[in-house]
Structures are given as C-alpha cells and as structure tokens.
Write a structure and sequence with these properties.
The structure holds 3 protein chains of 3 kinds. Chain A contains 13 helices and 4 strands. Chain A is mainly alpha-helical. Classes of the chains: A mainly alpha, B alpha/beta, C mainly alpha.
Chain lengths: 322, 402, 358
C-alpha cells in the first residue's frame, strides 16, 4: 500500500509538469490549429534561463557579450550573493524565466509563424519543426552540448507521510506552483476580456476579426502565455531533477503533446487531466510492469483513445457536416 | 528542369567548396570522429579535448619524425550512419593516415568496416563492446572491454563488499549498459550471489522514483548501476531521498567531473570501475591533470584521459613505423608494448584490445576518488571472447588492495 | 512502335545506364565519399517518393514513415543474417546467389513493412488531419520501443553483422522502381481516386470512390516502399540501431517532400538529394552547421511555402478543406484571409471536435 501511495505521488508530480507543458500546446492549437513542435524546446530554454538567472553566465560569458564581468549577468542571483537559497528565490527565478520565455515566444511567433500563417497548415508545421531544430541546435552551441546542473534554489527535505510513504518538499512546491499557474490560466482565459478574445479567435478567427478583435495581438499573447508556462515547467523540473541539457525538451515535449491530445486538444482542463493521466500511467507502468515499455504504453493509450474517442477525453464530439 | 539543374550544381559545388585538398604528405593527417553534439556530446567533447592536447604536445616537441600532426575533427551528431559517412570522407576525400574515434560502440561498429576496407588504422579510445575490434585487423581499442569490466564489478561486490543479494538498475536503451548488466548478472550469480530485482530506465529519463520505490521493496545489499554518470548522479540522489542507503556500484560510465555536481553527498561510499584516477599521485598522471586543468579549466575525466592516451599511442606507432602507409602504421600499432599512458601501461593483445589494469574507485566526501583496488587482467583470453561467462574467469588473477 | 515495346526499351536503357554507372562508381573513378552521399540520396529518394504518395497525392498526413522503414530494415536484415547467406551460398555463392538472396530479402522487407502498414492503416485511416499524424507518430515510436527490446535483432546494442551490399545499381534500381510505381499509380484511375480524396474526401465518396479502401491501399503501398528503403539502409553499413528510426527521421523525410513540393515526384527526388547533401556541404561551418541547416529550413518555408518545385494544388486542397471545415482538424486562420465570403456563408461551421479553446 505504501509503495502504491508512493508511486501515486511520484506520478502526480511528474504529471503536473506534463500538464503545464501540455497547456501551451493546447492553447496554441486552439487558437492557430498549429502543432507547435518547438514548444518542448521553449521549455528547455526556460530551464536554461533559470539556470543562468541563478548562477550567472560567468565572467568569460559576460565579456563575450560585452557585459560587465562582475555584474548581475555574470554572477546571477545566487552566484552574486544577491539572494540566499529560499522559496522566494525560486519564485523570482521562475517568474523572470517566464518573462524571458514569453518574450522569446512572441519573437518566434512574429518572425517564424506569422509570415507563414497565410499559407497552409502543413507549411506552418514544417516551420515549427524548423524552429524546434533551431532551438535544439542553437542551444547546443550557445549553452553547450554537455548537461548542466541546476543549483538548489531552496533547501529540500523529505516529509514522512502516513503509511510509510514520503514526499519531497520539492514535489510539494512543484505541485502547488503548477496548480496555482493552472488556476491563474483558467482565470485569464475565462474571466478577462483578453481571455474572451482568445476564445473568440479560437472559435472563428475571421469572425473575431470582424468583431474588432486585434487577432495578431491575441495570437501573440497566446504564444507569450504558453511559452511562459513552458518556462515555468522548465524551472520546476530543474528544481525537482537538477540536470538540464539542450535536448531535454524533445521527449518531454512529445509526451506533453500526447497529453494535450489525450485530454482533447484545445481544451484547458483536458490538458491538465491528460498530463496527470500520462504521468500517473507512466509511473505505474514503470513501477509495476516493465519500464522498458513505458513510452510504448503512453502512446498505446493515446492511440486507443484516438481510435475510440478521437476528440480526446474532454473534447466535444461533433458530427461531420456535409 | 533548369531549376533542378541549378540546385544540383549548387549542391555539388558546395560539396566541393569544403573539400580540403588531400594529397601531399608534409603533414601527418589524423581523422577524429566524435559526437560533439547530440545525446552523448559530453563524452565526445572530453575525448576531443584530450586528443587535441596530445597532438599539440607532440607538435610542440617537433611533431612525428619532423612532420606536424594535422587533426581533422568531425562531429557525427551521435548518429551511427553519419559516423560511417565521416570515416568514408576521411579515407577517401581527406586521405587521412590514421583515425581516432568513437566513444560509443554503436558508432565505432558502423564506421570500422570502412576503415578496414580502406586499410587505414582506426583506434577507439573508449568503445568497450567486444564486437568493435572484430571488424578487422586495422581496428584497435585502447581500453578494457565490457565483459572484463562487468566481471570486475560483480566480483568486487561479491568478494570485497561481501554482498549476497543485489539489484540492478540498467539503461535499457543503451548498449553499454545492457552489455554490462548481462555480465554482472551472470558473474554475480555464479559467485553465489542472488539478483533480487532488475529495474530499467532509459537514457535521458529524469525521474527514477518509480523504479527506486520498487527496488527498495526488494531490499538488496548492493545496487549495480551500470549507466552513464548523468543518470547515475540523479539515481543516487533520488535513491538516498527514498531512504535507500546501500552502496551503488557501477562502471567507467560514471566517471565525470559532473558526477558529484549532480549526485553530491548521495554518492559518498559508492564504487565504480575506471581507467584511472585523477587523484593518483603518479607524476605522469599529475602532469597530465595539471596541464589539462590549465588548458580547459576542469579536471580531466576518464574519457579525456583515454582519448589522450589513444592519441599518444597512435602517434607513437606512426613514429615507430617511420612511414605514413596504413599497413605499416597498423603493424607498428599492433606491436605496441608497455606503452606508458596516464591510464596505465598499454599492450595490445592478439585481438587488438588493450590489456591494462582496471581501477576500482571509491567516491569520498567532496567528490574525490580513492583507489580501492587495482585489478590487472592477465592473459589475453579474458579480452578474447564475447561470451561473458568465459571472459569473467581469468579476472581474479591479481588483486592488490590499497 | 507498340507501347509495351517502347517501355521495354526504356527499361533496358535505364538498367544498362545503372549498370554502367555502377561500374564507374565501384571502380573508384569517382571519390567514394561522393558516391556514398549519392547512394544515401538514393535511399532518401525511395523514402521521400513513397511518403509523397500518401502525404502529397492522397492528402493523408502521416509522420510515422521511419517506423515502416525500420520494420523493413530489421525484417530483411534478420532474413539476410539467418537465411540469406545460406541461400546465396547454396546457389554457388557467386554474384547470382547474392542477387537472388538480396531480391528475396528486399521482397520480404517490403512485404513485412506493407503488412505493418495494413495493420496501422486500417484502424487509423478513419482519423484525419492532425489526428492521423499523431497516431502514425505514436506507432512509429512504439515500433522503436519494441526494437529496443527484441534481443534477436540486438536490442539497444544495435544489429550488426548484416551482409554489406553497397551497390549503386541496387539502390538506384529500387529508387527508380519506386518512382515508376508512384508515377504509374498517380496517372491511373487509382491515382485519380487518390487525388480526388485529397481534393475533397466527401465529394469523392459521393462520387462513388471507396475512400477507406483507397486510402488503406495507398498507405500499404507507401509503407512497403518505405520498407524497401529500409532494406537498402540495413545492407548499406551492415549495422542497424533503433535510434536511427526515431520520429526525427520521419520528420526528415517529411521535410524532404515538403521542401521539394508536395505532390511532385521530381520535387521529392530533389528534396531528398538536397537534404542529404546539405548537412555534409555545411560541414565546413563546424558547430554552426545544424543551426544554419534549421535556419535555411525556416527561411525556405517563409519564402517558398510550396517547396522548390511544388505546384500549389496540394496546398490549396489543404487550405480549401480547412476553409470548408470538412475535417475535424480543419478550420484555422490559414484559410481565412483568402475568402471571407466563405466564412460568411457558413457561419454555423466552426471546426468540429474539441479543438476550440474552452
């Protein structure tokens, strides 16, 4: 029983991360009908931004980009001694990384996706693959191909639970922040004017335009929001598992995308549900069956769902009209 | 149609544009193919560092028989087919005299037949799969092979740690890890131990909590983790977080300056087999470590050291052969005897595999290494066969505790 | 001159030309490095042209091509290692023996890949657009996971010891055959049915085209040809590794056909060559080469979305369908700016399914 409980906790922590990334996929798909393959790589960039914010880029790196080798850029929040490891530091690092990635998301949308928006969706898809390759290969040049180790942003310890299971304080922080971000997103999409505009654009872009919505702004905003969530996921993952490398986004991104489809792509609660389901299933398969088939099982579930309920778990089924 | 022709012409001229002129033998051309990007980039980068340092040292001392060494370093993106393409380029277009590479056995295996066909000697510093040097008599290896290392790991746990039960955590997607797992499992069982659980993960996995939770339930006395350091560090950390306190034991894939950066104190008291220890007091080793530190700013890992040795061995063979002909260099390479490298003295056996000591290292507080045991593999039979059970037998030949 | 005689003569000329070129290349009259890249291009051509049949001509979005390639590669390699060498030796071990063994091996690879295509195609071709893409991607990944665990073919260590057949003739014979087959399909009644499915699936069905049957058939043929491409690769370096067949490989093939132009055979050939040559040509840029490669890809998509040689037709079909919203994955702004009146006349048609933000 305690093993099961432990596995469940493991699964939920992992699932929460998938959910955060899946949200970005789902929002962009909802608005643009574009599978943004570069999203997983934005998550990677987020983790690296967190790394550099905390540790700085070093005196040599700062000199290379013409910055003061003793300044903040070079030494970072922790490295420069500006902040001590604490929860506040973790939050500051995460929020700054989110802001940077939001900007990166907007830039990607502006430079790569907007020019191809008027073409077919296939063109946009290949562009997305191109952006993904660019971030991966560029990441290996800029950040270095070897893995880096994320600093401890706050002290971690194990908290014993009933039944012999235990939970790491990092897991609790990850869960709480992930949940908070999802609630915030829900509020933005359903309780603000911008959120309403987003939903209108996703329902019908042309009509939304006719209603006087600045669709370009809304699409850019969607990318900013999605990228910020991916960055948050990147920093949270790095807090939990402190190894980051430029290719870390590929598989996680793919699985998060699977999670988005599983929940019903375009559906915000669906993405959260899908992420949790994939996280828990994966953990259970690893724990009780064979870890080797972990990835296969995640995809097999996806295929079964799609064959029997193509619109995903929470998506609405619509009849095909002639 | 015009457009097709245009594109074709542009492509071909592009190919030609980056064609360094071959021909002429005023320099010793050595092709180096390594994964400096992709999934095993870190290993490739360390190896290239070691090789570059070795070449610069020799060049500064006047080169080989008066000729300067010209390294041609190419990245294969951690892809086997691309490794084969690069070696084809080396032996035809660039007309190199010798080849160094790769770290991963899969890519060495894909590339070896091409070097063999072209009769250009190829020396791999760190591909430990026995299959590699079976590709032909021009293919050499300057490190120990998996069966020997795996047997040493299992034997250490059974004899020195007195373990009766053990669990294994294997990287199922990684040929190095699955190869070691097989030998460890067989040797440990043969020596009277019992493998109580085998769990697996995949390269790049970040979360090992599910596997470790299961392993903890099986209550092993020791856990074998024959994987790469970046996964091992995380596994150690998450294992200690889960309250697993038994020692972890692994192979040379553990060695990295980054291992302790990830795992930290969770690694204290764990063991792994390695090619050398940078904390060895031997003056040769210390000179190498200091030079490397001055040049690259970090302590050289085993891959840098083995690559450095491999380069030096190759240069030495070229020097002794007094020729740039592939067959001559091959013969000189095969005749290498008691070469004093930083990772131990190297002699090639008749399978062109290096015979040299295995070092069992204990990780101490602060990430320093203590050499726990030195296992000299004597006789060539050990390195000979792919059948791990046979290979394991001669290992206990000479064990010196320190 | 009767038609069949003319075709026969053309076939003979092509074969003679291939044999002649083979002779030239094997004789090392050309730099083997170029020849290797040329042969890799030949394999890429087989893969790209076969994918174009399903993606470009039938309009079904598949991104699991590497999976079928893997099935063909591994099954034929298994045959060659365990039976092929014996077969060749029992036939005297000479050139003839190898030709027979290799032919059987290729047919087996293609057949097994075709069967895999059938197994995947029947359930999943009911899905459309992005959903089909995701399912094929998933199947591709599952195949890789299984290959990693099958000990008989080396598992994660990779499969080595496959007889090496580095034959220009063989590779380009398969490539030419693929081109001929796809060309003939496209210019037949079957091909017109496929194109009608691409243009408008509902209309095609209304006209009496058994869309499911045609789609599955096209998918099986495409998979079988991908399998043949896999056979070539397996015997090229004599070594296979599951890592080479991850989804990134499927993307690579997809990029080839889109770069060359969807629905253009010549374009696919060109795309295959360009994308095989490009990473090698960029070698001089050292660590920046893959960065430049991906930048070039993005720039090309922005400046020439229909690909190098593509006609706009297949893309228009994608756009039109999007406009009419006849597929669940349809809709989207790609359609919108071109003709607002369509939207105005069909205000009741948001993209069906659960895809709108909610």
């Amino acid at each position: 029983m305690s093993t099961f409980l432990q596995q469940l906790i493991n699964g939920i922590s992992l699932g929460a991360i998938y959910s955060l990334i899946a949200l970005g996929y789902t929002m962009v798909y909802g608005v643009l009908k574009l599978i943004n393959f570069a999203h997983g790589d934005v998550y990677m960039v987020g983790a690296f931004m967190g790394f550099y914010l905390a540790n700085g880029i070093g005196a040599r790196g700062a000199q290379a980009i013409g910055m003061n080798p003793d300044g903040f850029i070079a030494r970072g929040l922790l490295g420069g001694g500006a902040m001590e490891p604490s929860l506040i530091t973790a939050l500051v690092v995460m929020l700054l990384a989110m802001a940077i990635c939001a900007a990166i998301g907007v830039i990607i949308e502006r430079l790569a996706y907007r020019p191809v928006r008027k073409y077919s969706r296939l063109t946009a898809l290949i562009t997305a693959i191109g952006v993904s390759l660019l971030l991966e290969n560029g990441g290996q040049v800029v950040f270095g191909a070897e893995p880096k180790f994320f600093p401890e942003l706050f002290g971690k310890r194990n908290i014993e639970l009933f039944g012999g299971a235990s939970i790491n304080s990092a897991d609790i922080v990850v869960l709480v922040i992930a949940l908070g971000l999802m609630v915030a997103l829900q509020l933005i999409v359903y309780r603000t004017k911008t959120g309403r505009a987003m939903r209108a654009v996703s329902f019908n872009l042309q009509s939304a335009k006719l209603m006087g919505i600045n669709t370009d702004h809304i699409i850019a905003f969607t990318f900013a929001l999605g990228s910020a969530l991916a960055a948050a996921a990147g920093v949270l993952v790095a807090i939990r598992i402190p190894r980051i490398d430029p290719l870390m986004g590929i598989l996680v991104g793919l699985k998060a995308f699977v999670a988005a489809v599983l929940g019903g792509i375009g559906n915000i609660p669906g993405a959260m549900l899908g992420g949790l389901l994939i996280g828990i299933t994966e953990t259970m398969v690893v724990g009780y069956l064979s870890p080797t088939y972990k990835d296969a099982v995640a995809f097999a579930i996806l295929i079964l769902i799609l064959l029997f309920r193509p619109s995903g778990l929470l998506g609405t089924v619509a009849q095909e009209k002639v | 149609m015009k457009r097709i022709l245009g594109v074709l012409i542009v492509s071909i001229s592009l190919l030609n544009a980056c064609n360094p002129s071959g021909g002429g033998s005023d320099k010793v051309r050595v092709g180096v193919f390594m994964s400096t990007t992709g999934s095993t980039a870190n290993f490739g980068i360390s190896s290239v560092n070691g090789i570059k340092m070795a070449a610069d040292e020799v060049n500064a001392a006047g080169g080989i028989n008066g000729k300067q060494i010209e390294l041609n370093v190419q990245d294969d993106r951690s892809d086997a087919s691309e490794a084969a393409t690069i070696v084809t380029k080396f032996v035809t277009q660039d007309q190199v005299h010798a080849i160094l590479g790769e770290v991963a056995s899969s890519r060495s295996i894909a590339a070896a037949p091409i070097a063999q066909n072209a009769k250009i000697p190829m020396l791999t510093p760190s591909s430990t799969n026995p299959e590699v040097t079976k590709k032909g008599d021009f293919i050499f290896r300057s490190c120990f092979i998996d069966p020997v290392q795996g047997a040493a790991i299992a034997q250490f746990a059974a004899r020195s740690l007195n373990a009766k039960t053990a669990a294994i955590m294997v990287d199922r997607k990684n040929d190095y890890s699955t190869g070691l797992e097989k030998v460890i499992n067989e040797t440990f069982t043969r020596m009277g131990g019992k493998i109580v659980a085998v769990q697996s993960y995949q390269e790049g996995d970040q979360d090992f909590n599910a596997q470790l939770t299961s392993l903890k339930g099986a209550n092993p006395e020791v856990i074998f983790v024959p994987g790469y350091y970046n996964d091992v560090g995380l596994i150690a950390k998450q294992a200690r977080d889960k309250g697993i306190t038994v020692p972890l034991v692994g192979g040379d894939g553990w060695d990295s300056t980054q291992l302790y950066a990830i795992g930290g104190t969770a690694l204290n008291g764990s063991y792994f087999t390695n090619h050398y220890s940078p904390y060895d007091s031997d003056p040769n080793v210390q000179k190498f470590v200091n030079d490397y530190k001055t040049r690259y700013g970090s302590i050289p890992d085993a891959l840098a050291a083995t690559a450095y040795d491999a380069a030096k061995i190759m240069f030495d063979a070229i020097k002794r052969s007094k020729s740039l002909d592939g067959a001559d260099i091959r013969d000189a390479l095969a005749a290498t005897k008691d070469f004093p490298g930083v990772t131990g003295t190297v002699t090639f056996n008749e399978n062109r595999d290096a015979v040299k000591p295995i070092v069992m290292i204990e990780i101490k507080d602060g990430g320093t290494y203590a050499v726990k045991e030195r296992v000299q593999v004597e006789g060539t039979a050990a390195a000979n066969t792919a059948a791990p059970a046979d290979a394991a037998a001669p290992v206990p030949a000479k064990t010196t505790s320190q | 001159m009767p038609r069949y005689l003319r075709n026969l003569i053309i076939a003979l000329i092509v074969i003679a030309a291939l044999i002649g070129l083979d002779f030239v290349f094997q004789g090392r009259m050309l730099n083997p490095y170029f020849v290797r890249i040329l042969m890799l291009s030949g394999i890429a051509i087989t893969l790209a042209v076969s994918l174009n049949l399903i993606n470009g001509f039938t309009g079904q979005f598949s991104i699991g091509h590497a999976g079928f390639m893997a099935v063909g590669a591994y099954s034929s390699a298994y045959f060659s290692v365990n039976y092929g060498m014996n077969l060749a030796n029992s036939l005297g071990g000479g050139r003839l023996g190898w030709v027979v063994a290799l032919t059987v091996s290729t047919l087996i690879g293609a057949a097994v890949a075709g069967l895999a295509g059938l197994a995947v195609g029947i359930p999943s071709l009911r899905l459309r657009g992005d959903y089909l893409a995701i399912v094929t991607l998933g199947f591709g990944q599952i195949i890789v996971v299984f290959l990693n665990n099958i000990e008989a073919v080396g598992g994660a260590r990779g499969y080595s010891g496959i007889p090496i057949v580095k034959s220009f003739f063989w590779i380009f014979l398969v490539a030419v055959l693929t081109i001929v087959i796809v060309y003939n399909i496209v210019n037949s009644a079957f091909g017109r049915a496929l194109i009608s499915i691409r243009e408008d699936e509902l209309a095609a069905e209304a006209m009496g085209v058994n869309t499911t049957r045609y789609k599955v058939l096209a998918f099986v043929i495409s998979s079988a040809m991908a399998g043949a491409g896999g056979v070539l690769l397996a015997h090229f370096d004599g070594y296979l590794n599951p890592k080479s067949f991850e989804f990134i490989k499927s993307f690579e093939i997809l990029i080839m056909i889109i770069l060359g132009g969807l629905g253009s055979i010549v374009g696919s050939v060109l795309g295959a060559i360009v994308l095989t040559v490009l990473p090698e040509a960029l070698r001089g840029f050292a660590e920046y080469r893959m960065v430049i490669y991906s930048l070039l890809l993005i720039i090309l998509m922005i400046t020439r979305p229909q690909g190098l040689l593509g006609s706009a037709a297949p893309l228009k079909a994608w756009r039109k369908r999007a406009k009419r919203g006849t597929e669940p994955a349809g809709g989207g702004p790609a359609a919108a700016p071109t003709n607002p009146s369509t939207v105005a006349t069909q205000p009741e048609r948001p993209a069906p399914g659960g895809e709108n933000l909610r």
